[in-house]
Amino acid sequence: MAEHNEVAYTTADGNDYEAHEQTYEGFIKLVKYGTAAVVVILAMMAIFLT
Q1: d(CA 20, CA 16)
Q2: What is the pLDDT of residue 1?
C-alpha cells in the first residue's frame, strides 16, 4: 500500500504557491468587478428601458 504520511503538494517539485496566490487574487478581482458591471448594466436597463 502507498504511504500517505506526507501531503503531496508540499513535497512536489515545481509548485509555485506565490503564482497560485496571484492567480486567485486576480480571479477574485475579476469576479468582484464583473459582478459590479452586471449590476450597473441592469440598473441602467431598468432606468432607460422602462
Answers
A1: 6
A2: 55
| DSSP state letter for 6 | S
In 1-50 the beta strands, taken as DSSP E runs, fall at none
Residue 2 grid coordinates: 502507498
pLDDT digits over 1-50, tens only? 566 666 666 665 667 888 889 999 999 999 999 999 999 999 999 999 98
- CA 13 to CA 36: how far, in whole Å? 39
Query: Cα–Cα distance between 22 and 13 in angstroms, integer?
Result: 19
C-alpha 4/C-alpha 35 separation (Å) is 41
